[in-house]
Design brief:
Blueprint lengths: L9 E4 L7 E2 L1 H10 L6 H18 L4 H12 L6 H12 L3 H4 E3 L4 H10 L3 E6 L5 H7 L7 E3 H4 L6 H11 L6 E5 L2 H11 L2 E5 L13 E3 L2 H9 L1
Parallel strand pairs: 1-4, 1-6, 4-5, 6-7, 7-8
Antiparallel strand pairs: 2-3
Amino acid sequence: MVARVTPPEAVLLDAGGVLLLPNPWAIASVLRAAGGTIDIDSVRRAHYAGTAAMDAARDRDWRRYHRVLIRFAGVPEPRAADAMAGLAEIYTAPATTLWNTVPEGVVEQLRDLAATGVAIAVVSNSDGTVEAALRRCEISFDIVIDSGVVGFAKPAPEIFAFALEKLGVAADNAVHVGDTARADVDGAHAAGVRPLHLDPFGDCPDPAGHHEHVRSLADVVAMVVG
């Protein structure tokens, strides 16, 4: 449950894992080509488990994430190297190539969030193409802070400061919604912003009570409404 506190004036949103997910059909095709079996819904589930694995290790080694996908798909051990190579290839493509799937319910939840009148901005670790990726998925925003453009990446507090300055909102009046404990939660804490960890399956490796969790943007809408 989300604690009842003063509603925020601004909501900062991570892109990957919150607004966009990696294309499950592309990922499933790589895993199946290596002898695995995985359905489209399981790719989403594996994404959050893989993100949690990186959080637990306190690094952003995507090989660790890829191994979780491979485990979920049951890729035979002799073919694991093939799967790792295929996943590495598609995950190093531009954001517009892979991160192009909007999670179910997000469009409606964004509409509800905007209707509250709260200020909204995107704060993303990306490669300079996340704004175009969002626009192609028809969920464009007026303010998009892309680490590949501004030169600072989460958890550096500076990337949050760019968004807050553009919104004209103080850090302690904002929340940041992200799917990683290390980049998003730690970064928001460093910036003085209240972090909300989007953790739909309860995978977070941090101790209970370390930070707040939400299951979807619907929880954020409820918080803003108060």
